[in-house]
């Protein structure tokens, strides 16, 4: 088996694993286990990995041009996209954190209003009871 054929076999095996990963992502999206905002990043990463695998001659040409080995180029590219995925997740978490803070403040205000209404009702009931007692005595 020549080196070029070995690389082609490895590329096919890697492409199969990437396609299985895409199928897993799609099943998570359909089952509502993965939100669309996260899924876009992961599908983009998978599509890039599949593209790199299928366009092996272009990747080898880039490796020769830049002096970076094939495996290093793939690992660097995948790490870059993982960083983008982590950035996306951080942005979404920041948005959710702000929403949580606002919601907890609103709940606190509503709780105060409810307690004030309950105290007002108790005061009205006590006043009514006092009036009933006064009217019965008089």
Whole-number mean pLDDT = 80
The helix/strand series, from N terminus to C terminus, equals: HHHH
In percent, how helical is the residue content? over 70%
Oligomer: single chain
Report on the structure:
This protein has 138 residues and is mainly α. Helix content is 91%, strand content 0%. Helix 1 (3-30) packs antiparallel against helix 2 and helix 2 (36-54) packs antiparallel against helix 4. The N and C termini lie far apart (113 Å).
How is this fold's topology laid out?
Blueprint: H1 3-30, H2 36-54, H3 56-66, H4 70-137
Helix pairs in contact: 1-2, 2-4
Keywords summarizing the entry:
138 residues; mainly alpha; 0% strand; rod-shaped
In short:
The protein has 138 residues and is mainly alpha-helical. It has one domain.
